[in-house]
Each structure stands twice: as structure tokens, then as C-alpha cells.
Amino acid sequence: MRTQKRCMGYVAIVVDDYDRAIEYYTNKLGFTLVEDTPQPGKRWVVVTPNVESDCNLLLARASNSRQETFIGNQCGGRVFLFLQTDNFWRDYEAMKAAGVTFCEEPREEEYGTVVVFEDLYGNRWDLYQNN
Question: What pLDDT, on a 0 to 100 scale, did the predictor assign at position 125?
Fold first, then answer.
């Protein structure tokens, strides 16, 4: 019997400028730029926290005023994305040194260590490490 592999390939996040977003995600969060391909009227820009990951972040520039209203508010103020790490303190300290905005102090939960941060646009993320 053949099994299918299914996974999330991309999660799109609305941004105001490709280059500004690339700079933030690569230099502040330590992501890798996977692809930056010009297309008519836009670019296909993909970054990833881990080049071996099946799930990547697609940086999608807003193309009209309606889309612009969602920049920084992808999830209505709730945590939108969850960045899992194998070394919480290493990544937390690196992100803090790079100027990432944290909304709270790191905390221990029953599942592991977590802290909420905001990206360049104000979207809220969890940085977490499972126990």
C-alpha cells in the first residue's frame, strides 16, 4: 500500500516591500532566503527557518489597498505563527541581540519554554521549545 506524504508547503504573509521583508527575516530571525524569482508584477519570495523544512514562508507583497490593511494583522492580534527551536535560549538571545521586539519575558509552560515576539510588521509569533 502506498502512503502519501502531505504537509504545508508555504504559509503566505502579507508584506509591504520584498527587500525590507527579506532583510528582516534573514538578518533578524536568521531565516534563509530560498527563492527570489521575478514574475509579472510581483516576485516569488520564499524564506525558511530551516532549509530541510517542508514548510516555508512566502513573502507576498500587498498588491492593493485591501491587502495592505492585513499587513501586521494576519491573525487579528493573536499569535499567528509558531517558530519551534531545538535550543530556545540560543535563538532567543540571538534574536534579542538582533533587535527583535519581544512582548514578554520567556516563560516555562507544561509543554516547554515560550516567548511571544512581533515581526517587522507587528504580527505576533511564538518562539518555543518543547520539553
Answer: 98
CATH 3.10.180.10 fits 10-130, yes or no: yes
- Structural domain spans, the chain: 10-130
> pLDDT class for 1, splitting at 50, 70, 90?
low
Alpha-carbon distance of 121 to 53, in angstroms, equals 24
Q: CA nearest 48: which of 72, 74, 78, 84?
A: 84
Q: What is the mean pLDDT of residues 57-72?
A: 96
- Per-residue pLDDT, 7: 87
